[in-house]
Design a protein that fits this description.
Layout (H helix, E strand, L loop, with lengths): L5 H8 L5 E4 L8 H14 L1 H4 E2 L2 E2 L1 E4 L5 H6 L7 H4 L5 E5 L14 E6 L4 H4 L3 E4 L8 E4 L5 E4 L12 H11 L9 H11 L15 H8 L25 H4 L2 H12 L25
Parallel strand pairs: 1-4, 5-6, 6-7
Antiparallel strand pairs: 2-3, 8-9
Length: 282
């Protein structure tokens, strides 16, 4: 209704209109209807929305690693694969998932840090490195590639993540063809040359693909009318590092009690200690 009314007309008349769709829309029951409606509007006004100098339709990813995963093709390859019941699950830094999606009889390997939700259900834990403990290549939400260096040493038995995968491949008899960071980055560049174009935003190569994804794949979708909701219940516990942080736990406690003084109280929110702090990581 908004796009068909006065608001939509103002957006049509704008020199540089922009629509940003939160990734939470994808999780909504009416996702297909949303994408069809927005896609049809963008296509109708393509002269303003999609030009050589302006991309007026954008999706804001919720997870920090999502843009990079898409760039290397880390997606479900087919519907058949998606419907296959796994016997073996390797959680690569995965802590935001529905436990019901992992079969009870599956053998689970968790590779990550801070021992969060993935580690709690794992049969084997392979301690990896946090972003501060390793050299890495990252793609931010606008598609800009950035590289980092380790700021601190690895704790305990932790290992850099690519080395864990390299060791596992050798153990399984299918050794990956790289032995150092330079070789890893060479392989990344083979997959996507953009991964070596640091601090440069690559232009969209297939604009018409957006039309196919947004409109053609979702034609005829009917909306249920279910209202949109916030996808993040607790801003202070949105990732594994935050959930392990005493500071974030105090902030969460302050939000839960509605009293900012909770930030300075000791752990243990109990009936006889209403100013206490909520349990870490909850």
């Amino acid at each position: 209704k908004a796009l068909a009314g006065p608001f939509g007309k103002k957006l049509q008349a704008a020199k540089r209109p922009m629509i940003i769709v939160g990734s939470g829309v994808t999780d909504h029951a009416d996702a297909k209807a949303f994408y069809e409606t927005v896609g049809a509007f963008v296509e109708k006004n393509a002269a303003n929305f999609t030009t050589s100098e302006w991309d007026g339709y954008n999706v804001l990813q919720r997870e920090a690693s999502r843009a990079g995963a898409f760039e290397v093709g880390f997606t479900t390859p087919s519907t058949e694969v998606a419907q296959t019941k796994p016997k073996f699950v390797w959680l690569l830094g995965a802590d935001e998932f529905n436990e019901a999606d992992i079969p009870q009889d599956a053998f689970v390997v968790y590779q990550g840090h801070h021992g969060d939700r993935g580690a709690q259900i794992a049969d084997v834990i392979l301690p990896g490195a946090a972003y501060t403990e390793k050299a890495g290549t990252y793609i931010n939400t606008e598609g800009r590639v950035q590289t980092t260096r380790a700021a601190t040493s690895l704790p305990g038995a932790s290992r850099t993540d690519w080395k864990i995968l390299r060791a596992a491949s050798e153990f399984l008899g299918v050794s990956l063809p790289y032995d150092d960071l330079a070789a890893v980055r060479d392989r990344m560049m083979e997959i996507s040359p953009a991964l070596a174009a640091y601090d440069i935003v690559e232009p969209v190569a297939l604009r018409q693909l957006s039309k196919v994804q947004l409109v053609d794949q979702n034609k005829g979708s009917k909306a249920t009318g279910e209202p949109l909701r916030k996808v993040i219940d607790n801003f202070y516990f949105t990732d594994v590092i935050s959930r392990s942080s005493p500071t974030m736990a105090r902030c969460s406690a302050s939000k839960a009690t509605g009293d900012p003084r909770t930030n300075f109280m000791a752990p243990g929110m109990e009936e006889d200690k209403p100013m206490g702090q909520v349990a870490y990581g909850v």
